[in-house]
Design goal:
125 residues; two-stranded antiparallel ribbon; 5 helices; globular
């Protein structure tokens, strides 16, 4: 098989191997998310505040990547989703179902974003 070194275009690393493509692009973002989570876990933030942090600092970085790459692996999406909810609950047991948290504030939720649905929506548009 012909090996070609990865190329960088508009912040996305492009290569011919699908698994490597995903690893090269998602791993740095997940690592950066871990560092940001460590910082924000030291702060005493409400659940609503954490949802704002998740939307502005984490999901905003993922949206561009998800919109450019044709595939987002299920395992990686689950890992990111777990990391976001672990941050939301401050490393404690989840007490409210995730689908309830995704509801609007008027419906009893906190307007938490569903990363998998957001990814699917980006692929449709």
């Amino acid at each position: 098989m012909d090996y070609r070194p990865p190329k960088i275009g508009l912040g996305i690393i492009i290569c011919t191997d699908k698994d490597r493509l995903i690893d090269l692009n998602y791993t740095p973002i997940i690592s950066k998310m871990n560092k940001t989570v460590q910082f924000w876990n030291k702060q005493h933030t409400t659940m609503f505040g954490k949802v704002v942090i998740i939307d502005t600092l984490f999901i905003s970085q993922l949206v561009y990547l998800m919109s450019v790459l044709s595939t987002s692996p299920t395992q990686t999406m689950k890992q990111i989703d777990t990391q976001l909810y672990t941050f939301l609950w401050s490393n404690k047991t989840e007490r409210i179902k995730r689908n309830m948290l995704e509801n609007t504030k008027e419906s009893g939720g906190v307007s938490m974003s569903d990363i998998t649905l957001k990814d699917k929506g980006l692929k449709i548009s």
